[in-house]
Specification:
Largest sheet: 3 strands, mixed
Number of helices: 3
CATH architecture: 3-Layer(aba) Sandwich
Strand order of the largest sheet: 1-2-3
Strand content: 15-25%
Structural class: alpha+beta
Helix content: 40-55%
Number of domains: 1
Number of strands: 3
CATH superfamily: YefM-like domain
Length: 83
């Protein structure tokens, strides 16, 4: 059985009837959409999705920073006055 990774869940039929009510009820949390009691999709409010994308971007930038820190021995020191 698949784990449901949301505090709220709804059937596809409930989603078809009133998606706005489901989003309001979830109060910004993801909603697991179930088909035959198995999660088939997650409905995420736009604001939450945008926040998740920002977190992913920050994570990716952090990985780039860490990889470049490992290459500091190849760095060339430059004075701001020389620029």
């Amino acid at each position: 059985m698949k784990q449901i990774l949301a505090d709220c869940s709804a059937s596809i039929s409930e989603l078809k009837k009133n998606p706005t009510a489901l989003l309001n009820e979830a109060d910004g949390s993801a909603i697991a959409i179930l088909n035959h009691n198995k999660p088939t999709a997650y409905l995420v409010p736009a604001e939450t999705y945008e926040w998740m994308m920002d977190v992913l971007d920050d994570y990716e930038l952090g990985k780039i920073v860490e990889s470049r820190r490992a290459d500091l021995s190849d760095a060339i020191e430059v004075s701001l006055d020389d620029l």
